[in-house]
Each structure stands twice: as C-alpha cells, then as structure tokens.
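Give me structure tokens for this 222-residue protein.
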Amino acid sequence: MKVPFRIAIFSFLIATFVLSGLSVLRVDGQTKKKKITYYALNAGTVLRVRLHHDLSSKTAHIGLAFTSTTVDPVYSSGGVELIPAGSIVHGKVTHVRPAAKNGEPGTIDVDFVSVVLPNKRSVVINGSLVSLNEEGAKSDNEGTVSANKTSNRHLKFIGGGAAGGAIIGGIAGGGTGALIGAGVGAVGGLIGKNFSKGKDAIVKSGTEFGVYLNRKISLPRY
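Here you go.
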C-alpha cells in the first residue's frame, strides 16, 4: 500500500527533528561535563618509596629500568591527596661502576621518570635520589617528606663498608646499599690506597629512600 505523500513528508520531518534533538542533547552533555581541577606538587617535594627488587652495581647497566612503590600518600600544599600510597614510581640507571680492586666501592646513579597511580593515571616526573635520613629532611603529619634543595643533589647508591663513616644514608630495607653525597672525594682518595677490592652496591628489595622532584608537576585530586 502506498503511503500518501503528505504523510511521508510529515514522518520525515518528525524523524529529522528527533535526531537533531538527540544531537543537541549529546553536545550539551559534552559541554556540561565537570571540569577537572589540577593541583601542583612543587619542586622539592620528596616521595618516600620502597624498592621492588634488588639493584647491584655488579650486574646493573645504564638504562636498566626498575620500579618502587610509594609508602605514604602525597598531598598538595592545600592538603589534597594527589598520589596515594601504592603508586608505582619508575626509575632508570644512569651510571654504574662495579667495585674495583683498588678499594673503590661500586656505585649506582639513578633517575626517576614517571609515577603511575592505582587508577592507571600516569605523570612524567624529573626525579632524583635522596636520603630520608639526612638533616634537613623532615616528614609532616600527612606523610609528605620535604628536604633542603641544596643538600639533596647528586646522591647515589654506594657499596657499604669500604667508605667507612663516609656512608651518610640509612638502609631501611636491611641491604648493603646506602645513599652518599658527592662531597666525598677526599675519602675516595684515601681508600684508593687500599689494594683490596671494594664492595659492590647491593640495594635490597624493600629498601626505602626518597624521590626528589626537580620540577613541579600537576595532578587532579585522587
């Protein structure tokens, strides 16, 4: 049965109107999405992390990737939680020197490149290794650690024992790796006279240390 021409035209106009309305609703729905607010974590913020697996100056190589987990949540200056405990911090080895027979201990230099939150949100960071036990490093009541910028640069893992009292970092995980500053050249000269082999830097899984943010990052409330 043929549909009358007027009814066909009317049906076409109704269908067009309905589809247009749905399109408007869809567009309006997009424009009404809640705007995400970002909060800053300033340069100088330190994340307390725990190493996932062993690192050794005997086997590590430049570019080796490793991971650690945040121990405490990290908050913005206004108290907004941005990085929860359990977030994954990715790092890489930038320089490694095995222990030598002249008494030189093994060392491992590292950088930190990103943080992945439990909700899979990822943020790129420029992070350096820092000791949580130095003077000038403090923890507030929210678990965020702050540190003096000038006293926490160029730290590295160094083999324990060979440098004696020059080891300034703690070993929370019970390993033989420690954190040491760059200002130990004189000590290095002294132990250079020792012809016995130095100790490799062996940082055990579970060791805790700090990740110092060299640049500001921004994240939404977690």
